[in-house]
Amino acid sequence: MDSPNRPTPPIHHLSLKLILIPPILLAIATALSLFIHSDTNLYMLYSQCHSHARIDWLSRIPLIGPLACFLVSFFQEALLSPVRSKGIMSVVLSYVAGLLTITTVEGSRLCNKSAFLLAFPTATWLIFDLVGGALVWELVIIPAFFHRAKTVIQARRQGTTTSEGEAAAEPELVLGDPRHLSTLAESLSIPVSIAIGYILPSLLILLLPSDKTAVPIFLWLFFPVWVSLLHQGVRTGFLQVFKDHPTWPRPFHLETSLLPLVTTYAAPILLSLASHIYLIVTLFTHPRDDRQEMTLATTRFIMVNMVYVGLTVLYWAFIEAGWQTALVMLVTTVLAGPGAGVCVGWVWRESAVGVDWIGRRFGRRGSVIAVAVGGTGSRGGSGDRGEEGREGGNAPSEETPLLR
């Protein structure tokens, strides 16, 4: 396919230090905004947990009791009003489902297997969920992806050997199909693990009466652990069952396989659309805000965090894939909610950094150079090479799209 007539994404020509300046500024702005919007009610909430006045059984657990009680009480208060806070929190939770999906997908790509923070994101997600909020995205997650992107670009420019004739440190970034997921089993293990480990607990805390949510919220707080365990367990199970199957154990490219693509992203997109519609409807049918003072303080704190996460992710998409991907993400967010926006934007993003499945279906305007060395890559993970690859199209060049 021909290279599209589009600008090169900024990641290709800006230095890493320059790219990291906006996330640092966003982190400073996040800290200032959270300080400005902090409320004495939040301090009082922790004080009540410390004195065992709230959730007595939880607050008395040694070491972690007061903090665990505070976190559970915080989300209980955030979900307390039956209309407005439920609508806001449903949008927030569906957005987190979208973010969890894209980071799990990226961590499962062959090119990220040697990047520990990307391949094993459980720890960073736990810190984000329990204490760090948006600051974890701005100072840890996004810089880790940018650093990996720069490593991949350098590897593609360098080729399989250095200028001194030595072998490249990570030849897998140049040879084979780096944008492929490690196995077809990922197309089921990712959505199943997120559905059971995150979406189901999220629905429980949204739908249950507030006086019955203490245990569900406490378990929900550790969703990164449940998702990780389920992801590994389901993937291993499928590989054991289909170990003799010709396709299942082999790598495949998600964005060129329509059915796996739909199964991977369907749940967060549909949940985002449903929560988006619900929030808009309640804004018109219940124009009076029904949140009490404590609920207002907690939801405001959450909203500030998620706004800065959204800005950081939008910047991430722009830097690695260009303004078109960021625009698609933004427009979809307005129409169907942020969870749908990040998922649709991520599929579109692959047209800038990998194989463009949209271009294969809708013609030259959507097409890009395939990243797989030796051809356009295999459809559905077949691994077949095109004519161009067999006739010397193996060498990466400056025009080869970004791999990560």
UniProtKB/TrEMBL annotation:
**Disulfide bond in keyword set:** no
What transmembrane ranges does the database entry give? 14-36, 57-75, 87-105, 117-137, 188-208, 217-238, 258-281, 301-319, 325-348
Q: Where is the composition biased (Basic and acidic residues)?
A: 382-391
Q: Looking at the record, which segments are called Disordered?
A: 375-404
Keyword set includes Protein biosynthesis = no
Keyword line: Membrane, Transmembrane, Transmembrane helix
Q: What is this protein called?
A: WGS project CABT00000000 data, contig 2.48
Q: Which organism is it from?
A: Sordaria macrospora (strain ATCC MYA-333 / DSM 997 / K(L3346) / K-hell)
